[in-house]
Write a structure and sequence with these properties.
The complex is a heterodimer of chains A (about 190) and B (about 725).
Chain A lengths: L10 H11 L2 H10 L9 H12 L4 H11 L3 H10 L11 E6 L2 H5 L2 H12 L12 E6 L11 E3 L2 E3 L4 H24 L1
Parallel strand pairs in A: 1-2
Antiparallel strand pairs in A: 1-3, 3-4
Helix pairs in contact in A: 1-4, 3-4, 4-5, 7-8
Chain B lengths: L3 H20 L5 E6 L2 H6 L1 H15 L4 E6 L11 E4 L6 E3 L4 H14 L18 E6 L8 H13 L7 E6 L14 E6 L3 E5 L2 H13 L16 H7 L3 H4 L17 H6 L4 H8 L3 H10 L12 H10 L6 E6 L8 H8 L1 H15 L3 E6 L4 H16 L15 E6 L9 H8 L23 E5 H13 L1 H7 L7 E8 L5 E6 L4 H8 L9 E6 L5 E4 L9 H6 L8 E6 L4 H15 L5 H18 L6 H16 L3 H5 L2 H9 L1 H10 L13 E3 L9 H5 L5 E2 L7 E2 L9 H5 L5 E3 L1
Parallel strand pairs in B: 1-2, 5-6, 9-10, 9-12, 10-11, 13-17
Antiparallel strand pairs in B: 1-3, 3-4, 5-7, 7-8, 13-14, 15-16, 15-17, 18-21, 19-20
Classes of the chains: A alpha+beta (about 190), B alpha/beta (about 725).
């Protein structure tokens, strides 16, 4: 794919609009790749950065990536929807990931999932109404020795019993309430 | 003879020695703490924090903290080692803040050991020396020398507290010459291995080493076996003693973020050797001699693959490390990437040199953030040291590495799909041939190897292909790392020579089935693999026997299933996985997995008919034979192998509408025994659908119509009145 910057008469306008959507480190990354050999192969890396910053891939951001990296939007969307890791919807503040790998499965991950669904009142892939938690499942976190495990944000917990799962959720709830109270005081 | 590469290497080692010396850790007590995703999850960061606080408040400056990767002893993490100069190293298991306090105030401050917290009970009481006798094929015939030592020590009045005796599977230092004539003994903490021929030799060791503290130079071997550093530290732990460590020789002893430490453990010597010979063919030949087969699952000879890539006329060639470990239940690649990243980088540079690649790519799944961080760090440090980039090690050859992240697609472990993914496309596989070694990344010859394959390369170069070949079986050389998990007592990473019987892995190393239940089957190879029934557990682990049994070696996941597991349910679990992960490109896989899953769901929900089994089998064979890539071709394996070995379970589900392991929810029901129910109302209060009725102090009843079979009542009842039938 050529990386000659588009030469349409409204390019300056489009470019400015797209640049307003993305943070500087992503713009820099895209810019640094311009003109490099096989630069289009960095698409997945760009999408990782976008998701890392926004928590998900929004229409607006994908459009900006497509324009600035000069990759067709169809391909950007195609890649974003192919890989499970990419999310197209906003997610809760805390992501609870239940591992459904084999080791966790044989050690009772289904019960754990059920408890979390009951506790939070949501199914896999959904977000609580207050926007605090999203419940997701993952295929294997590679910490099978501790099965069954859950990962809240970047923190892995294991082995977790259904009762302990409730306690973990409570811990985050308390923290959030504490933060809210602090904010109210301030 | 001066060679620019050798000079470069020597200067590098000198600089590393200096850096390590400047750290000033020599003579200090070292507290070694594991640091990897699993260790962190178990709480090792808290442990480190607590040790730092203790060291600070004690004001002692003769204590250093040493961060290492993970040894693979997962269920006992966090693991902490206390290494006091001149004393045998002590390891503690499941350390938390409280135990840190105990270790610090007793062991470190007062020298009182804590056997109750020792790793796998490896410490009964304090001792001065530990003698570890090799029990390998070639040494083991001389078991009489061990008996002789024991009786002599007794005569001399040397008892417990002075000498401890253990055995080890094989140090790998034997050769044909010493076969049946000599045995090897590792003496800890002296870091000496003796080669012993006669009883007189034993006398000498006893008199000079044990009683007078002098090393018997005459008997000490000069060469250093591949895993000596590892076993100097861990040879007293049963879990490790039955293992051979080649690919994982540095895991858990080296700081994964320090190039200097890796160099101290013999790092980059293999690369220096390879480059100084200026003969890529020599490298390929060693790997061929080693009979190293691809550890990603296919088992293709690595040397052959390299030969194909090197023979290509096209000069722009690429090398790729496949770290897209997507199998649920497998974590050996994560372990190696996190615990010994420099070794993987070195293996990859050697591979690149052998095939003449100009550029390499690390493909790592995004779910492994710590592994990515450690590889990034390793690449950066190698670049700074001149081990990557222009003119590698002064050899005139240039090569660089880049990391590419996966994004959660299992199919990208398949090599053609992986190539698409590196190119920034949807990871859909292509028809082979042409194989990637002919036309791969951007149409250029590309060699793709697994993490574990690369982890073995430096050992092959350092110790020779012939040595590596003799570790394994006739057909395949070396060891294999397995991720042992499921219903087994000791879970973790296990590295054993190929050809080791399965039951040895599960029972000797794994400690047997959890809660001493009966073993039902061993599942190898993840969703692409199959089940090995318990009656076949004598089988040797190697590529060909496993394939014959209807399973595959795969990347090395090994899940132990007990009598409490339902094979139909587990097969359904795997198929749910492959069905979701099917990329949708070819019809047999896309439709086949969906329909097979439908049939399994029908069976587990009690609606199956006997004719479903034939349909299932036919569909499975069709999917196996006609799918485009490995994912679809292997997806039916769990079904076919469970049908072959556990057909009666399917029949039971279909004919009797029963699941004897009580895993298939639709086939079980809960009821309350009026005899034992005392009417405490706990079940009724916990029932999410409020289908349990009854008054206080009277037997309760479950309304079967409304019951969702969640099992909550079964779990909360303290009087065992709720029955699952």
């Amino acid at each position: 794919m050529s990386h000659a910057i588009a030469n349409t008469d409204n390019w300056a306008e489009v470019k400015a609009a797209c640049e307003a959507v993305l943070p500087k480190h992503i713009l820099d990354f895209i810019e640094a790749n311009h003109g490099q050999a096989h630069s289009e192969s960095q698409l997945i890396a760009i999408l990782h950065l976008v998701q890392g910053h926004f928590g998900f891939l929004g229409q607006e951001q994908m459009h900006a990536v497509a324009q600035l990296a000069q990759i067709p939007l169809a391909k950007v969307t195609g890649v974003a929807t192919f890989y499970h890791y990419f999310r197209l919807q906003p997610r809760g503040k805390h992501i609870i990931n239940v591992c459904l790998g084999t080791a966790c499965y044989v050690k009772g991950a289904d019960k754990l999932s059920q408890r979390l669904m009951d506790e939070l009142g949501i199914q896999f892939g959904e977000t609580t109404k207050d926007g605090l938690f999203s419940l997701e499942s993952t295929r294997c976190l590679g910490t099978c020795g501790l099965a069954p495990v859950i990962m809240v944000d970047d923190q892995v917990y294991g082995p977790v019993s259904p009762a302990e799962a409730s306690l973990i959720v409570d811990k985050y709830l308390k923290k959030e309430k504490g933060a809210k109270a602090e904010a109210a005081k301030a | 003879m001066s060679n620019p590469v050798t000079e470069f290497y020597q200067a590098l080692i000198a600089r590393a020695d200096q850096t390590l010396a400047e750290r000033g850790d020599a003579g200090k007590t070292v507290i070694q703490i594991g640091s990897a995703t699993c260790e962190h999850a178990a709480g090792s960061l808290d442990v480190m924090d607590e040790f730092l606080k203790h060291i600070q408040s004690s004001g002692r400056e003769d204590i250093a903290i040493h961060k290492t990767g993970c040894t693979g002893r997962c269920s006992k993490e966090p693991i902490v080692g206390v290494l006091t100069p001149g004393k045998p190293p002590v390891k503690y298991e499941r350390v938390n803040r409280e135990v840190v306090h105990k270790i610090f105030t007793n062991h470190i401050q007062k020298g009182i050991l804590l056997p109750e917290h020792a790793l796998d009970g490896s410490l009964e009481e304090e001792y001065q020396y530990e003698l570890i006798f090799c029990e390998g094929q070639r040494c083991g015939r001389l078991a009489n020398l061990k008996t002789y030592f024991e009786s002599k020590a007794k005569e001399a009045g040397i008892g417990r507290g002075v000498v401890k005796i253990d055995t080890h599977r094989c140090f790998g230092t034997c050769s044909g010459e010493t076969e049946g004539k000599a045995t090897h003994i590792l003496v800890r903490p002296s870091k000496v291995i003796y080669r012993v021929y006669t009883e007189k030799d034993i006398d000498e060791i006893l008199d000079q080493h044990i009683l007078a503290g002098k090393v018997v130079e005459r008997l000490a071997i000069k060469e250093k076996p591949v895993a000596q550093n590892f076993f100097d530290l861990y040879a007293d732990v049963k879990f490790f003693n039955a293992q051979n460590r080649v690919a994982m020789r540095n895991s858990g002893i080296v700081d994964p973020e320090s190039l200097e430490e890796y160099l101290k453990f013999g790092g980059f010597r293999a690369l220096a050797t390879s480059l100084s010979k200026s003969d890529p063919e020599w490298v390929i030949n060693e790997v061929l001699k080693a009979k190293l087969r691809g550890r990603g699952g296919g088992g293709f000879l690595t040397g052959k693959k390299w030969q194909f890539a090197a023979a290509n006329e096209e000069k722009t060639r690429y090398i790729v490390c496949n770290g897209d470990e997507g199998d649920p239940g497998a974590f050996m690649d994560r372990g190696m990437l996190e615990s010994d990243p420099f070794n993987i980088v070195e293996g990859m540079i050697i591979g690149a040199y052998a095939i003449g690649a100009c550029k390499g790519f690390y493909y790592i799944r995004a779910e492994y953030p710590l592994a990515i961080k450690r590889i990034e760090n390793a690449i950066r440090k190698c670049r700074e040291a001149g081990l990557l980039g222009e003119n590698v090690m002064g050899s005139g050859w240039s090569f660089d590495l880049e990391i590419r992240l996966g994004a959660g697609a299992f199919v990208c472990g398949e090599e053609t799909a992986l190539i698409r993914s590196i190119e920034g496309e949807r990871g859909q596989p292509k028809v082979r041939p042409p194989f990637p070694t002919t036309r791969g990344l951007w149409g250029k010859p590309t060699c793709i190897n697994n993490v574990e394959t690369f982890a073995n390369i430096s050992a092959i170069i350092n110790y020779g292909g012939d040595w590596f070949a003799q570790v394994g079986t006739q057909a395949s050389g070396g060891t294999k790392v397995f991720a042992l998990a499921g219903k087994v007592k000791h879970t973790g990473l296990v590295e054993v020579p190929l050809g080791t019987p399965l039951k040895e892995v599960v029972f000797t190393i794994g400690g047997g089935v959890l809660d001493d239940k009966a073993l039902k089957a061993i599942q190898t190879g993840g969703p692409a693999g199959g089940f090995i029934p318990a009656k076949w557990s004598d089988m040797e682990v190697d590529f060909d026997p496993l394939a014959k049994a209807g399973s595959i070696m795969g990347s090395g996941g090994m899940i132990v299933l007990s009598e409490e597991d339902c094979m139909v349910d587990i097969s359904k679990f795997y198929l749910t996985f492959t069905q979701e992960e099917s990329c949708g490109k070819c019809t047999p896989c896309r439709e086949g997995t969906t329909r097979m899953l439908e049939i399994l769901e029908k069976i587990t929900s009690g609606k199956g008919e006997l004719s479903d089994l034939d349909r299932l089998e036919r569909l499975a064979r069709l999917c196996q034979q006609t799918s485009l890539c490995g994912l679809g071709r292997a997806a039916p394996n769990p079904i076919l192998s469970s049908l072959k070995h556990f057909r009666e379970e399917y029949v039971e589900h279909i004919v009797d509408k029963k699941c004897s392991t009580k895993k298939c929810v639709a086939l079980i029901r809960y009821q309350i025994n009026p005899e034992t129910c005392i009417g405490c109302t706990v079940c009724a209060r916990n029932c999410p659908v409020e289908c349990i009725t009854g008054t206080r102090k009277e037997a309760h009843v479950i309304d079967q119509e409304r019951c969702v079979k969640c099992g909550q009542c079964f779990e909360v009842c303290r009087f065992d009145a709720v029955e699952r039938i």
